[in-house]
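User: I've been going back and forth on whether these two constructs are worth ordering. Before I decide, could you fold them both?

Assistant: Sure. I'll take them in the order you sent them. The first construct and its structure tokens:
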Amino acid sequence: MRRSGDPAIDDDLLAFIRTSIKSVWMLELLLFLRRHAERAWSPAELVRELRGSDVVVAQSLAGLQGAGLIVQEAADAYRYAPAGSHFELMAGRIDGAYAQTPNAVVKAILSAPNDKLQTFADAFKIRKD
């Protein structure tokens, strides 16, 4: 398998990071929830624990839930609960890669295509009809 330039991040992991983790803050939230998987956390508790903003926490929770990495247990409580063994494996690999080579993981996140930017760019494409 071809490598992405860093031995800790192969192409499968790189693809998972780029499609599931939209920001470094979302990564930090995922790793926090993974390390505290025994309990559910309210957004207010996560804001306090991670010193984030309400908006960033809400967006990150929605993204992680959409990626199949966390679940909403109650009206206002979230817990790390991957949708399957593949998601658990990838989350563990992200955790390991971030511990070993944090800059490579950050670079993978930041180099992911931005959907909003792509949508904006697509609006200016000249179409041949």
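The second construct, handled the same way:
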Amino acid sequence: MYIREAHPSDGKWPIPNAPSDPKTLDERMGVASTCVKEMKLSIPFVVDDVDDSANEAYSGWPDRIFIVGADGKIAYAGARGPFGFKPADARAALAKLLGVEDAPKKAAEKGD
């Protein structure tokens, strides 16, 4: 989910080549679309509203992993980043949710 720019060009701590902080939903959708296209992402991508409702509800900033189950409920809620951002934990939770063996974890345990 695209929430808000962490370091927009017009913000307190800008980074080089960052977009400005989108002021409208259309602007935010445009930035997210550019990200999806340039990074060649193939996963579903959603955009928070400009009031940051999802970010406020789920403490998504600066980064966080959630997995939503088939029932629409949160099946996994990772800790807040950057130190709590652990993709391997999310991968294991997703494998468990899907009832499949976590192959990368198994390989690591075997030393492969």
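Notes on the second construct follow. The first strand starts at residue 66 and ends at 68. The mean pLDDT is 84.
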